[in-house]
Amino acid sequence: MSLLILHFLIHLLCKRQGKMAVGTFSDEFTSSLPVAKLWKVGVVDSHVLIPKITPQFIESIELQGDGGAGTIKIFKFTQAVKEANIVKNRMDELDQENFVYKYSVIEGNDKYESSSFEIKLEASGDGGSVCKIGGEYTTVGD
Fold first, then answer.
1. Which residue(s) pair with 30 in the sheet?
2. C-alpha to C-alpha distance for 27 and 14, rounded to whole angstroms
3. How many other CB atoms sit within 10 Å of the CB of residue 68?
4. CB atoms near residue 34 (< 10 Å)
5. From residue 117, how far is each of 78, 90, 104 by CA, in Å?
6. How many CB atoms lie within 10 A of CB 131?
7. Ranges for the Bet v I/Major latex protein domain (predicted)?
8. pLDDT tens, 64-88?
């Protein structure tokens, strides 16, 4: 659960410090939570959990849609986040069977022409999970 939140905060802080460039990134984390539980709390219900865990940064996350592919997530940030008040993500894929979530930022960050991300959860040998995160982005003017 906290791994996906960590991904979000790392992504947010990198943007805030202006350290991203054109290209891709990937990272991998492990969790003691089973895949299905991590998927539910970290992806499916993240719009409920993230504002509770990071109230200093995120005021709310609103869903427009049924929660599946095509749904828009609207992140409303607190005043601590100077670069954006609102960011909108489009859920491009939500594969419940294979635990794959893909999304694109569609509005709210004028530093990027485009950015898309993928989160894939897999079972680990010890009953926990492996969370693989990747993304592609293009900064404005590149």
1. 130
2. 14
3. 11
4. 15
5. 23, 10, 6
6. 26
7. 20-142
8. 999 999 999 999 999 998 878 898 9
Q: What is the mean pLDDT of residues 27-55?
A: 92
Closest among 129, 117, 118, 109 to 32, alpha carbons compared: 129
Query: Exposure pattern of 79-107 as b/e (b: 16+ CB <10 Å)?
Result: eebeebeebbbbbbebeeeebbbbbebbe
Helix (H) or strand (E) holding 1: none
Predicted local confidence at residue 138, as pLDDT: 81
Looking up tokens 């709210």 gives 108
As given in the structure block, the two tokens for residue 48 are: 């409920």
* Crossing angle of the two packed helices 46-53 and 2-17, in degrees rounded to 10: 60
Enumerate the β-bridge partners of residue 60: 76
**Beta-strand relationship, 23-31 and 100-107:** unpaired
Question: What's the CATH class of domain 2-8+21-139?
Answer: alpha beta
Decide: residue 18, CB within 10 A, 0-12 exposed, 13-18 middle, 19+ buried: exposed
Domain boundaries, the chain: 2-8+21-139
d(CA 25, CA 140): 18
